Amino acid sequence: MFPSQQRTMEILNKGAEGDIVSRVCDTFLSVLILLNLVAVCLESVNSFHAQYGYELFLFETVSVVIFVIEYSLHSGTARYQHERQHCQHPRACPTAPAH
User: Domain residues for 70?
Assistant: First the structure.
């Protein structure tokens, strides 16, 4: 496990009390989700969609790209997280010496 993968996992998972970067990431993603809900609701209003349809499309496209990047980073750290959870027991850890 590379230190950058560990840090990525720490940032993407629920932030620890003093981890400002992780908290900012949590808040950003939460606000982005809420803004997407608002955008979907506004898009359903014909007059709003007629006037701002292109801007809504761009916002949704950028949001999807951000969520795909987040998902990819989660996938990249999944093995480390799995090993971390299961290596609490010596026999479950692939790097543990055989007994």
Answer: 3-92
